[in-house]
Write a structure and sequence with these properties.
heterodimer, A: alpha+beta, 3 domains, 12 strands, 44% helix, B: mainly alpha, Amino acid/polyamine transporter I, 76% helix, 0% strand
């Protein structure tokens, strides 16, 4: 596999570290200053008198992101009452960690841990008592299925990993953590099966994560843009899904999944063009049913990208192709329309996109309005006013509706932008330029790579695969994992 | 075996198939008919037989000197200076043929679909698309052709099924057309219509295994010949030779002739879509190969940066000739005739020198 991992800064390696020393009161003052103790209301510092070593112990934490009951039970009570020789003896919580630098202290406080500084000690201790608030698990809304599990990821890495582990009970399922961001350190959890994943790709992903040079990456939606190779490309190169069952299916094939604390979705990589077409339901439905859906989706893909452009090309340049009766009907309906055909199609396509965008942003209480405005004004009034001809309404409704069959969020945009490219191409020189634009669009896709994997694999270049690319085989007849990502174990059985 | 290369036998097969079988759709058929009348449909076989020994010899040499492409092979056997001369001849000949046949393809679009548009505009559009397609590189061209192939085959099968009713088999007689000697002579002279077979050996090392090249080469050649013969046979039996000699683009006449029931009577645009995609790809392959040869001959590293000058000069060649008839039936015809001798000759020369030098035995 030939690909070049991005090599950029080495900024991470030369960052400073300040070791803790025995002048605890100085350090406490420093910490309080750093956290603007007097104005920052949810930053807490408490002082306790520890029973076991008869010294003052200082606790630092953010009240808003910790569980206060847990602090009482796991820290305050043992310190005040219990006897013992050292901190690990007294504080028996499993997450107790000894830390020795100021930077670590800050990092731990920021990520929801309690940090203990004992007077005259040159080490500090941290205990994980974090409790970030998040939503409960709810139904998947953007990738809904009729047949299949309904759970979706939620904004908590712990819960998300638990949702994945529920489906893959494999001791080799590994969840490692990398941190990104300079100012605000965020954890990115990398999930994979260690004896399947391609270690080169894994290394590449980790390197790219390390090379992200920015203050803060808040969630996977932003992480996606930091990771991808071609930020200006119209094709997505990372798969974004909110379904844990989908993520589990890809992990089992040797892919890598990235999770972050504040995202209710995950990133899957590397992927191919065909990934974006597939819905988990294709596999949950029986062979015939699943493939039927696939076929419908391919037809939808053709219609949504091409139907308007084809109409422009045929009606403008190749009208001999249209049967005479239909041609007469089209001409008659266009008789009173003042615009050229291309403009007419563009008006309708843009109008549809407007309704769509407005429909997403509109407050739900006003939702029905958009239907009325859209249907009445665009469907009927525009035709009656002779702005557009009725056949255009049909064409653009068809191309708009079929675009919803491409359920993937990222590919959906690709398709919608492509449609406009093709309409312009068709308006220029008919089929000649339309086919030229299509060919170049396709070849561009063929030239792309997602983390070293060719975008149109496993068809071209060909690889052994589960034969689940365009259509799928019966589930029990699948022999191979997708070998384009070169998993360590390519046989499924 | 090179793990970094992704091209396999399937891609080789489709690359060669598109490069060759599209000849069935251009003016080659009517070029053949001029002198041989209704024997033209099996003439490609004669042409192939004439160049086959040289071709096999070349393949044999490529196999012996592992991991060398056409130009590297010539350089190893003949030395630097002679290899540059031969490389230059191969380049110039293929470049001229590309220029002339390029004209032919754009004229087809011009005549049939955009009669009002000036030829220069059309050829610029065609060239732009071909250039950007070729710029994506050899691998991407291979992947694309492979994915498109089923659609090309499907559209051809539909066309064949639709025309089947109108065939008059008796039209192939007399089987020897204008006379067996003329047919043999003309067929032999036109050996160079398969010049692409020699050109594509420049890509010998670009496959995952060189076995893939040979496998794809043989299969691609067989299937291309079958499809060319098949289409020529259809032209011969649908139109008879007199009409073909006058019509120059029998493929497009067939697509205009067929209809799909009483409702859809003009379906040529449907076939035109696939023909256009095929032609774009064919010229992208052709342009890439030609540029590859010149860059290999003079050891220029970036093939992609040469595509524009080579392609554009090819376009100019196409514009120079005054009209199609002169272009196709005078220049193209005589170039083809002369080139046959060269392409039959040079592999034999290579083989002789390599045997004499003894290197061949050592390997």
């Amino acid at each position: 596999m030939s690909y070049k991992p991005i090599k950029k800064n080495t900024k991470k390696q030369d960052k400073k570290s300040t070791p803790l020393n025995r002048h605890t009161s100085m350090q406490i003052k420093q910490l309080k200053e750093m956290y603007s103790h007097n104005i920052n209301k949810d930053f807490c510092s408490r002082t306790l008198f520890a029973n076991f070593n008869k010294k003052n112990v200082h606790l630092f934490y953010y009240a808003s992101i910790v569980n206060s009951d847990k602090i009482e039970q796991a820290i305050v009570q043992p310190l005040l009452e219990d006897d013992g020789s050292s901190f690990p003896n007294v504080l028996t919580n499993e997450s107790l960690k000894e830390i020795d630098t100021m930077e670590k202290v800050i990092e731990h406080i920021n990520s929801g841990k309690v940090v203990l500084l004992s007077e005259g000690d040159c080490a500090a201790y941290s205990i994980d008592v974090s409790q970030f608030q998040h939503r409960a698990i709810s139904q998947s809304e953007n990738e809904s299925v009729v047949k299949g599990p309904q759970e979706a990821f939620t904004e908590s890495t712990h819960m998300n990993i638990s949702l994945i582990r529920k489906q893959i009970k494999d001791k080799q399922l590994i969840t490692t953590v990398s941190s990104v961001g300079e100012r605000s350190k965020q954890d990115v959890t990398i999930v994979y099966i260690s004896d399947l994943v391609n270690s080169e790709i894994l290394k590449d992903v980790q390197e790219r994560l390390n090379n992200i040079d920015t203050d803060n990456v808040r969630n996977v939606e932003l992480l996606e843009q930091y990771l991808e190779e071609r930020p200006y490309s119209i094709f997505p190169s990372i798969y974004y899904t909110e379904r844990p069952d989908n993520a589990a299916a890809y992990i089992e094939n040797g892919h890598i999944v990235l999770l972050m604390e504040s995202s209710s979705a995950c990133l899957i990589l590397p992927v191919t063009f065909w990934t974006f077409f597939q819905s988990p339901e294709d596999r949950y439905s029986r062979f015939m049913f699943g493939n039927f859906t696939r076929m419908i989706r391919f037809i939808a893909f053709y219609l949504t990208t091409m139907i308007s452009a084809t109409y422009v090309a045929l009606a403008n340049f190749h009208s001999q192709m249209i049967p005479p009766d239909l041609l007469l009907a089209i001409t008659a309906s266009r008789e009173r329309v003042p615009f050229p055909l291309l403009i007419e199609v563009l008006i309708m396509e843009v109008a549809f996109e407007l309704i769509r965008e407005a429909g997403i942003r509109i407050p739900s209480a006003l939702g029905p309005t958009i239907g009325i405005v859209g249907a009445l004004i665009l469907g009927q009034a525009a035709v009656e006013a002779n702005i557009i001809s009725p056949i255009i309404v049909i064409i653009s409704a068809l191309s708009g509706l079929t675009s919803f069959a491409i359920s993937d969020v990222s590919l959906n945009y690709t398709v919608r932008i492509t449609r406009f490219l093709f309409i312009f191409a068709a308006g220029f020189m008919g089929m000649l330029t339309l086919m030229g634009a299509f060919l170049l669009w396709f070849m561009y896709a063929a030239s792309l790579k997602s983390f070293g994997v060719r975008f149109l694999a496993p068809i071209a270049p060909s690889f052994k695969a589960p034969k689940d690319t365009l259509f799928r085989k019966a589930v029990r007849a699948e022999l191979w994992r997708p070998t384009q990502i070169q998993p360590k174990d390519s046989k499924k059985k | 075996m090179n793990p970094n290369r992704m091209l396999k036998a399937g891609e080789m097969f489709t690359l060669l198939f598109i490069l060759l079988s599209l000849k069935a759709t251009d003016a080659t058929a009517s070029l053949f008919t001029q002198k041989t009348q209704n024997a033209f449909w099996y003439m490609p076989i004669i042409s192939l037989l004439v160049i086959l020994p040289s071709l096999l010899l070349l393949l044999h040499l490529l196999k012996k000197y592992q991991d060398k492409n056409l130009i590297e092979l010539i350089e190893t056997i003949m030395g630097s200076l002679v290899s540059k001369i031969i490389g230059l001849i191969i380049f110039l000949s293929s470049f001229l043929l590309m220029g002339f046949s390029y004209r032919g393809y754009v004229e087809q679009i011009n005549f049939l679909y955009f009669p009002e548009t000036p030829y220069v505009i059309l050829s610029l559009i065609f060239f732009t698309i071909v250039y950007f397609a070729a710029k994506k590189g050899w691998e991407v061209i291979g992947f694309t052709t492979k994915i498109f192939l089923p659609f090309f085959v499907l559209s051809s099968v539909i066309l064949i099924i639709l025309i089947l009713n109108d065939l008059v088999i008796e039209r192939v007689f007399p089987i020897f057309g204008s006379g067996d000697i003329i047919v043999l002579r003309e067929g032999a002279l036109k050996g160079s219509i398969f010049i692409e077979l020699f050109l594509i050996t420049i890509a010998y090392t670009s496959f995952k295994k060189t076995d893939f090249f040979r496998k794809g080469f043989v299969l691609g050649l067989i299937f291309s010949i079958i499809s060319i013969i098949c289409f020529f046979f259809i032209y011969a039996t649908t139109f008879d030779y007199n009409s073909i000699a006058k019509m120059s683009y029998p493929f497009h006449d067939i697509t205009q002739y067929v209809n799909l029931g009483g409702y859809l009577t003009n379906i040529e645009t449907f076939f035109m879509i696939f023909w256009l995609l095929g032609s774009f790809l064919r010229y992208a392959i052709y342009l890439y190969l030609v540029t590859w040869i010149i860059s290999a001959t003079f050891h220029i590293e970036h093939i992609e940066s040469l595509l524009l000058p080579v392609g554009f000069l090819g376009l100019i060649i196409g514009v120079i000739s005054k009209n199609l008839i002169i272009n196709e039936f005078t220049f193209y015809n005589s170039i083809l005739n002369y080139l046959t001798f060269f392409y039959i000759g040079f592999p034999i020369l290579l083989w002789l020198i390599s045997s004499l030098k003894g290197e061949y035995r050592k390997k």
